[in-house]
Amino acid sequence: MLFSKSLTMTSRRIAAACVRHHSSLTTELIENMDKKATWDRFYTENKSRTSTFKNFEWFFGFDSVQDLILPLLRADSHPDALLRVLDMGCGTSALGPCIYRHSPLPVRVTCADISPVAVRLMQEHVRAKAIHPDNCSSQLEFVELDCTQLHKHYGSCSMDLIVDKGTTDALLRSKEGRGKANQVLKQCLKVLRSSGSLLQFSDEDPDARLLWLETEAQEQGVMAADVGVQEVGELRGVCYYCYQVTPRPVEQQ
Ligand SMILES: C[S@@+](CC[C@H](N)C(=O)[O-])C[C@H]1O[C@@H](n2cnc3c(N)ncnc32)[C@H](O)[C@@H]1O
After folding, report:
1. Which positions fall inside the Methyltransferase domain (predicted)?
2. Relative to the CA of 59, which ligand 1 atom is closest?
3. Domain count, the chain
């Protein structure tokens, strides 16, 4: 029941994202949102539709979620260093650049995506349109990276905040993506500091997502996490949620 509801919502969203795209891309997206080639095609076709660059936002933009994100960037986490933020599966969204721009505390924001097309578009965009951060020590970068391999790029306990807007949803709803979603969640918990959090923005019903998070974020003697949810709001008849996952010290047996 829940599964078919989320499939229907996914199809609606993809249809909206693919307005004027060829229908074969819509089919590819519905089944293969875990594949690099699908997203390379998506961002290439999106780009060819307009002469000037425009950020593409899955669900909604920074304004809808800034009050959930900015309070988590606190000075007490580790006072002398830059706070580390990762936008995982950033696409061509303005979320990461907006965190960089609006954080009063110094941050290093890494926007990472598996699609080199999306990464290149964002690199060219920020080069052409300089963004001035609130804190002059803040840094912004775009990297091509497969988030199932986060541990190869970042040390354990190195990130303060990971934001995920639609990326885990894309993996969970793909034919072969569930294993990757499990892997990504475990990697996030590994690279997050004990004071850090993972925020997943999603339209998935809490009954389904909380069960998945609570199951996959625990591994006896290895990993544990606290999981919470709050509503972001309703947009075009769909309710959106923010799932917060926070690593918890593992109890040794
Ligand atoms: C639904 S889109 C969301 C994009 C962006 N976060 C937004 O809000 O518009 C999912 C994104 O995840 C990226 N992605 C899919 N699998 C990935 C992986 N294994 N590692 C990194 N990015 C991935 C895709 O390229 C795509 O840009």
Report:
1. 82-199
2. 8
3. 1
